[in-house]
């Protein structure tokens, strides 16, 4: 995701062992049991788990949801909208109104105004600029239309009924913890980092998580360069880093889209003495990991399912359903998705949902 205006750090700065948690890991496709299920439970005849969990997927009243996101100018953002489109086939009761992706804030505001005027049931919004989109989101909420804020947060929490986030700080923690595990107590290893755009809070959070996790095993970042989340900048910055550092043991690159350029620079330099960890979780990165034929050995996921998760939560809200496995009957105010490390050992579990760079 990439460009939120603000990203709260809600994780602890201490990490017992190498386990990284998230604020919430929720099953988004199912709901809490019905009143009939509850009555059955009291009589000792609870419904099968599969039936209870499948109830949210059963067709209900038609729900009209407006969806707006930035332009699909890189793989991760394209996957955001494509995953939303796929839900239309899965849920016949979904009437999806998908606006054309745009990086023009004024146009995105106009798109949301149209949704409000059309009287949609809910709006799922991944803002190009969270601060700029806050007033129109507040307007939608005041009109009685629930807004689901995805990835790039609004300035005012009242502008959204639900916020769905990735975990930028957790990405850094996962990458750093993986290196600690691989280094196995060797504090003499050289760790390098190729970040995204340094001015962005998301980059700052990723780097802070990385630094905090490394400190747990006595390591720090020995060399760092910032790129711009593009292939071209990744290649340029990686070339500079490789020229200045004669020895590297571990390299974390924040973003698999820019990682295409990073890997090109590594190949051009003929370097293969280090282990590289990617970020975001692209399919091409996972295939490289699966093939085990280069320096890329792992990547940390930043889910491209966030928009689709937002739509599914919007559907639950409008149909007055809850989320399975929670006692709470209402959809939560915030869902923060996990940032797992993908390696050759578990890549098959994640490849099917990965985005193409």
From TrEMBL:
It comes from the Bacteria. Residues 65-321 form the Periplasmic binding protein domain. Transmembrane segments: none annotated. Keywords: Signal. The keyword Ligase does not apply. Residues 36-65 are annotated as: Disordered. InterPro entries: Peripla_BP_I (IPR028082), SBP_2_dom (IPR025997). It is found in: Cell envelope. Residues 45-55 have a biased composition (Low complexity). Residues 1-35 form the signal peptide. It holds the Pfam family Peripla_BP_4. PANTHER family: D-ALLOSE-BINDING PERIPLASMIC PROTEIN-RELATED. Belongs to the bacterial solute-binding protein 2 family. This is Substrate-binding domain-containing protein. The lineage of its organism: Bacteria, Bacillati, Actinomycetota, Actinomycetes, Propionibacteriales.
């Amino acid at each position: 995701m990439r460009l939120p205006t603000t990203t709260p750090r809600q994780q602890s700065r201490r990490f017992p062992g190498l386990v990284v948690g998230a604020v919430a890991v929720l099953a988004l496709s199912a709901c809490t049991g019905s009143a009939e299920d509850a009555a059955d439970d009291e009589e000792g005849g609870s419904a099968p788990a599969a039936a209870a969990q499948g109830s949210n997927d059963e067709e209900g009243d038609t729900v009209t949801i407006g969806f707006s996101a930035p332009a699909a100018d890189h793989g991760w953002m394209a996957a955001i909208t494509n995953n939303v489109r796929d839900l239309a086939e899965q849920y016949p009761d979904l009437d999806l109104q998908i606006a054309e992706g745009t990086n023009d804030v004024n146009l995105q505001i106009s798109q949301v105004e149209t949704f409000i005027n059309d009287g949609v049931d809910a709006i799922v919004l991944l803002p190009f600029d969270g601060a700029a989109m806050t007033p129109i989101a507040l307007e939608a909420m005041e009109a009685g239309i629930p807004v689901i804020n995805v990835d790039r947060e609004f300035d005012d929490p009242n502008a959204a009924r639900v916020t769905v986030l990735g975990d930028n700080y957790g990405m850094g923690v996962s990458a750093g913890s993986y290196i600690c595990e691989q280094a196995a107590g060797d504090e003499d290893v050289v760790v390098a980092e190729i970040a995204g755009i340094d001015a962005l809070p998301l980059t700052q959070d990723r780097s802070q998580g990385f630094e905090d996790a490394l400190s747990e095993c006595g390591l720090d970042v020995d060399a760092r360069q910032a790129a711009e989340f593009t292939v071209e900048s990744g290649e340029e910055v990686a070339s500079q880093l490789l020229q200045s550092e004669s020895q590297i043991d571990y390299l974390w690159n924040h973003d698999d889209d820019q990682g295409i350029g990073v890997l090109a620079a590594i190949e051009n330099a003929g370097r293969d003495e280090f282990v590289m960890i990617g970020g975001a979780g692209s399919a091409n990165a996972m295939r490289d990991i699966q093939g085990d034929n280069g320096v890329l050995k792992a990547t940390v996921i930043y889910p491209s399912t966030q928009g689709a998760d937002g739509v599914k939560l919007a559907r639950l809200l409008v149909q007055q359903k809850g989320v399975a496995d929670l006692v709470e009957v209402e959809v939560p105010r915030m869902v923060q998705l996990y940032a797992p490390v993908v390696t050759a050992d578990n890549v098959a579990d994640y490849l099917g949902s990965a985005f193409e760079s």
